[in-house]
Amino acid sequence: ITFENFLNTAKDKTFKGEGLNYFKDIIKGTIATELQQNDDFINQVYTKILNKFLNDDSSSISTTYSKVKDKLGSGLSTYTLSKD
């Protein structure tokens, strides 16, 4: 057996048939775990989402944001604080 034959056999068994889905799941899980633990990545994602959410007036996201903001604003204005 040569190293090249071993690699070809491993590639065929890994990337064809059921091995491919298993391999994809392992890769997705590994990447997701790594990204989840990376605070810089999480902050970048939140920043992009918030920028899209707040700055895109043509999207349904903007409409949803306006509805949520209005609902929260009206709810807060009618809410009274009481000391128990």
TrEMBL record:
**Highest taxon, organism lineage:** Bacteria
User: Which keywords annotate this record?
Assistant: Plasmid
* Listed name of the protein: DUF685 domain-containing protein
Task: Name the species this protein comes from.
Answer: Borrelia miyamotoi
InterPro entries for the chain: DUF685 (IPR007777)
